[in-house]
Amino acid sequence: MIEKLKSFGIIIKDEKLLKTALTHSSFSNEHNVDNYERLEFLGDAVLELVTSEYLFLNTSYKEGDMSKIRASYVCEEALDAYAKDLELEKYIYVGHGQEKDINKTIIADVFESVLAVIYLECGLSVVKKFILELIVPYIEKHIQFKYDYKSLLQEMVQTDKKSLEYVLIKEKGPAHKKTFAVEVHIDGMIYGRGIGSSKKEAEQRAAKDAYLKASK
Predict the structure, then answer these.
(1) What per-residue confidence (pLDDT) applies to 149?
(2) Residue 86 above 80 pLDDT?
(3) Quick count: other Cβ atoms within 10 Å of Cβ 152?
């Protein structure tokens, strides 16, 4: 059980699901168990919904400004901060060789996967209250995190009604220390490239490359 969740009145009864949410692929490959990747997908969507609703109901910003603010508070840097408020890094299961490299990407992913578990077990109203109690203090104090370039690029592309695709072009290395290379395609043309220790990190770097080029 994640002790800090108790202070929010949250108790997760499905311990197997919670362990999955805390399990990195390096551990799951070694022990033949599920990892957090599917849960992370769901948690990401829940986080974006709750943050979007908060900005819509509590500010009068235009769409573009809300997108930029939301991007700042759902980026990897921000999720790492929220996760550390909960001391999540103490509970993450990783494989041999990964123990000393539990980086921001892994911690941020686990935060999203834990959100998914709370949503599945406790419902939207509970996870919404939990997310807002964590994030709103950062917003009210105007604490700025690095921009989520994927969100900024998506906004730019939507304005011009162009297609956007992230293409994994290379994946190498052992399971506990993989390297990913990703390209960003806009209307079928390569606009940016990025390399990272996870697909999410590589996509962010590719998005940043593309966004900065497109903004010139």
Answers:
(1) 84
(2) yes
(3) 23
Residues 6+ apart with CB under 8 A from 122: 10
Note the CATH number of domain 3-146: 1.10.1520.10
What does the longest C-alpha to C-alpha distance in the chain come to?
A: 51
Closest to 22 measured CA to CA, from 107, 101, 86? 107
Query: Does residue 99 have a pLDDT over 80?
Result: no
Q: 150-215: which CATH number, 3.30.160.20, 3.20.110.20, 3.50.30.60, 3.20.20.80?
A: 3.30.160.20
Summarised one tens digit per residue, pLDDT across range 133-152 is: 999 999 998 887 866 788 77
Instruction: For strands 164-172 and 179-186, give the pairing.
Output: antiparallel
For the annotated catalytic residues, the residue numbers are: 44, 112
Residue written as token pair 């921009």: 147
Amino acid at position 159, single letter: T
